[in-house]
Amino acid sequence: MMPRFTFSGLPTRVVFGSRTIGSIGSEVERLDRRRAFVVCSAAQQREGEMVCDLLGRSCSDVYAGAVLHTPTSVTKDAMHAMVGAVSDCIVSIGGGSAIGLGKALALRTGIPQICVPTTYAGSEMTPILGQTEDAEKTTLADPAILPKTVIYDVELTKSLPKRLAAASGLNAIAHAAEALYAQNGNPIIGLLAQEGIAALIRSLPQIVSDPIADQSRSDALYGAWLCGVCLGSVGMALHHKLCHVVAGSFDLPHAETHAILLPYALAYNLEATPTALEALRTATGSNDPARKIYDLSRALDLPVSLGELGFGEDNIDRATTLTMKNSYWNPRPFDHSSIREILRAACGGRPPKTVRVDDYRI
Ligand code: NAD
C-alpha cells in the first residue's frame, strides 16, 4: 500500500526549450515590471549584456560580480548598484553563483526574480539561499527566495565546458538521489527523481564526447530541472550537509565536491533505505548505484578524491566537527566516527563499498 503523503507543487513558471531567452522581455512584462537588474558572474558578462540588449529600455543595469558561495560582501555591493539603478525586477543568468546573488537580492528587497540557469546546479527551483560570511556558509529558506519564473534555454548551456557540465550534472543527480530517501518524500517527487537521474546518466557521457549535441544538452537540462524540483520540494540529508561543509568552509568547487562525495554518501545511506536503493537501481540501470556513479565520474574524467581538490586528511577533524554541529535528519544514524570514515574514503578516492541489500534486484 502507498504510504500516506503530502505534496505541494512549486509555483514557479517554467519556460523550457531552445532559444527561449528571446522571451525574456515578455516574461518581465508578464510580472508587470519595467526595469530589470541583470546579475551574472564576471566570466559571463557577455551573456548578462546580451540579456540587457534583449530587454532594451527595460534593463536598468548589469552587475557582473557574482561569485561562488554568495559572500554577503558581494551582495551588499550589488544591492548598492541595484538601488542606484532603480530596478523593480531581478534577472540572474548563469550558474548557482549568479542565481544565488539574485536570490540574496530578492530576499533583501522583496523584488521578483527571473532566473536563466546555464548549469545544472538546480538553485533556480528552490526557496533556499546559501551565503558565506567569515569563512562559514549558512543556509536559509524563505518563500521570497523562490524565483517567479525560470527560463531554461538549451542553447545557453552549450558553452558550459564539458568538465563543468559533467560535475554540474552529478550535482543535480545528488539532489534527486537524496530526494529518494527524504523524510518528507512522496511518490511524485520519486518519479521526478528517477526520470531526472536517468536523463542525466544517459546524457552526460554524450555531452563529454560531443559538447554541442542538441539532444544530450536538452536531455541534461531537462534532467537538471527535474532534479532541481526535487531539491526545492523535499529535505536533503547527509550528502548535502557534507558538501555544504566541505565546499563552503574549505572553499572547494561546489559541483566537483558533490560529484566526489556522492558515491560515498550513497554507499553509507542506501544500506538503510531499500526503497531508495531499488529506485536508484532502476534509474541508474545498475545493482550498485554508488559504484555506478563513481564509475560514471571516472568515465567523465572528473576528480574522484577530495585530495585532488586540495582537501587533505588534516582537514577531516574540522570538517567532521562542522558536520556534527547541528542535528538534521538522515535515513541512517551517524556519529563522529562514521563521518570521519566517509571523509577519509572520499579523501583517498578508492571505489565506494558495495551496498549489501541483496534482496532488491532490478
Ligand atoms: P557557478 O555558478 O559558480 O558556475 C561556475 C563557472 O561556470 C562560473 O564562472 C560561471 O560563470 C561559469 N558558467 C556557468 N554557466 C556557463 C556556461 N553555460 N558557459 C560557460 N561558462 C558558464 O557554479 P554552479 O555549480 O552552477 O553553482 C554553485 C553555487 O550554487 C554554489 O554557491 C552553491 O552553493 C549554489 N547552489 C545553491 C543551490 C540552492 O538551492 N540554494 C543549489 C545548487 C547550488
Q: How would you describe this structure to a colleague?
A:
It is a single chain. By secondary structure, the chain is α/β, with parallel strands linked by helices. The chain folds into two domains: 13-157, Rossmann fold, CATH 3.40.50; 162-359, Dehydroquinate synthase-like, alpha domain, CATH 1.20.1090.10. Helix content is 51%, strand content 13%. The chain is built from 14 helices and eight strands. The chain has helices at residues 24-30, 45-55, 72-85, 96-109, 154-157, 162-179, 187-209, 214-233, 238-250, 254-269, 274-284, 289-299, 316-324, 336-348, and strands spanning 13-17, 36-41, 59-66, 89-94, 113-117, 128-133, 136-141, 149-153. The strands form two sheets. Strands 1-8-5-4-2-3 form a six-stranded parallel β-sheet, sandwiched between helices. Helix 6 packs parallel to helix 10 (254-269), helix 7 (187-209) runs antiparallel to helix 8 (214-233) and helix 7 (187-209) packs parallel to helix 11 (274-284). It is globular and about 60 Å long. Bound molecules: nicotinamide-adenine-dinucleotide (NAD). The site of nicotinamide-adenine-dinucleotide (NAD) has 31 residues, from helix 4, strand 6, helix 5, helix 6 and helix 10.
Q: Name the helicity range.
A: 40-55%
Q: Biggest sheet: strands, sense, closure?
A: 6 strands, parallel
Mean pLDDT across all residues, rounded? 95
Strand arrangement within the widest β-sheet reads 1-8-5-4-2-3
List the total number of helices.
Answer: 14
For CATH, the homologous superfamily of the largest domain is named as Dehydroquinate synthase-like - alpha domain
Total strands? 8
Rounded to the nearest angstrom, the radius of gyration is 20 Å
Return residue spans where pLDDT drops below 50 for at least 5 consecutive residues.
none
The string of secondary-structure elements, in order, is: EHEHEHEHEEEEHHHHHHHHHH
Portion of residues in beta strands equals 5-15%
Bound small molecules, which ones? nicotinamide-adenine-dinucleotide
How many individual domains?
Answer: 2
